[in-house]
Design goal:
binds fe (ii) ion, 9 helices
């Protein structure tokens, strides 16, 4: 494959939200002022029923992107062809702007641990992941986005920083990046690095999406729980990211302790308030 296989022009979707079952009814009744939705791919890899019914209805009115948790791109088991087939079928159904998953491994010997586990940041892991990303992209016929995960442990074998690791994979595989601003903040706290260095180390042209989320601070460690509102230092880091990367689609991720939609709508509006003036300045 040549590096120019894909046309990597970034489309800008605006300010979105992770679609959750708790909000289905409110969305189809109120059609809220949300620019787009990110859907969890695995929740819709089913034959029928209520989730697909709502998915199709909501898709009629909003752009969507697909976000997965089971690709295990860093794993050593062979890629799961059945999973990839289902992913491709779902993409054919909802025509997402893009498809993303995490830079991690999630299991071994066919067992899914349902956790996003970090990799050692080594040359060997870079080649391993990049070759798997290329296989996935060839199968799907499109580039994928890889998301930086929060981590709580590191490997003594790591030879480069996390941002160098992610950048090298993106370049080798010619894939794109979903930059989770909260995860940068969480990992910077847990591993004692400067989050601004992470932003500066990202290849700007490959960053297609931001995630924003809340977390749980245990004092000596931060856990990426997605069950709280976004905190002020993460909003500040977001402003810094918008200044550096410009028009990147932003999305609020809440997975637990899910509040009424209006509360998350307020967080979307807050993101618009932060990014709006910076983007207007960039556009001028
Ligand atoms: Fe995320």
């Amino acid at each position: 494959m040549t590096k120019k296989q894909f046309d990597s022009k970034r489309s800008y979707l605006g300010f979105g939200l992770g679609l959750r079952t708790e909000h289905y009814e409110t969305i189809v009744n109120d059609w809220p002022d949300i620019d787009w939705f990110e859907v969890l791919s695995e929740n819709y890899m089913i034959g029928g029923g209520k989730p697909l019914h709502y998915l199709d209805r909501i898709r009629e009115r909003y752009p969507m992107v697909m976000h997965g948790v089971s690709l295990s791109i860093g794993g050593s088991d062979p890629l799961d062809r059945e999973y990839l087939k289902q992913l491709k079928a779902l993409a054919a159904r909802i025509q997402p702007a893009w498809i993303s998953d995490h830079l991690c491994w999630t299991g071994l010997h066919g067992k899914n641990m349902h956790d996003l586990l970090p990799l050692p940041y080594t040359e060997e892991a870079i080649s391993h992941v990049a070759s798997r990303v290329r296989q996935v992209q060839d199968f799907l016929g499109r580039q994928i986005l890889l998301e930086n995960v929060s981590s709580y442990v590191s490997y003594s074998q790591s030879a480069v920083s996390e941002w160098e690791f992610l950048s090298a994979i993106a370049k080798q595989a010619d894939c794109l990046i979903l930059l989770d601003i909260n995860n940068v903040y969480v990992s910077a706290f847990n591993h004692q690095f400067n989050p601004s260095d992470y932003l500066k180390g990202m290849p700007a042209e490959r960053v297609f999406q931001f995630h924003l989320a809340g977390h749980t601070n245990k004092g000596n460690i931060i856990i990426d729980t997605h069950d709280h509102p976004i905190i002020d230092p993460v909003w500040s880091l977001y402003a810094e990211a918008v200044r550096r990367f410009g028009f990147v689609s932003t999305m609020i991720e809440r997975d637990d302790n899910i509040p009424p939609l209006a509360e998350l709508q307020a967080e979307i509006d807050y993101a618009r308030k932060i990014a709006g003036p910076i983007l207007a300045e960039i556009a001028a």
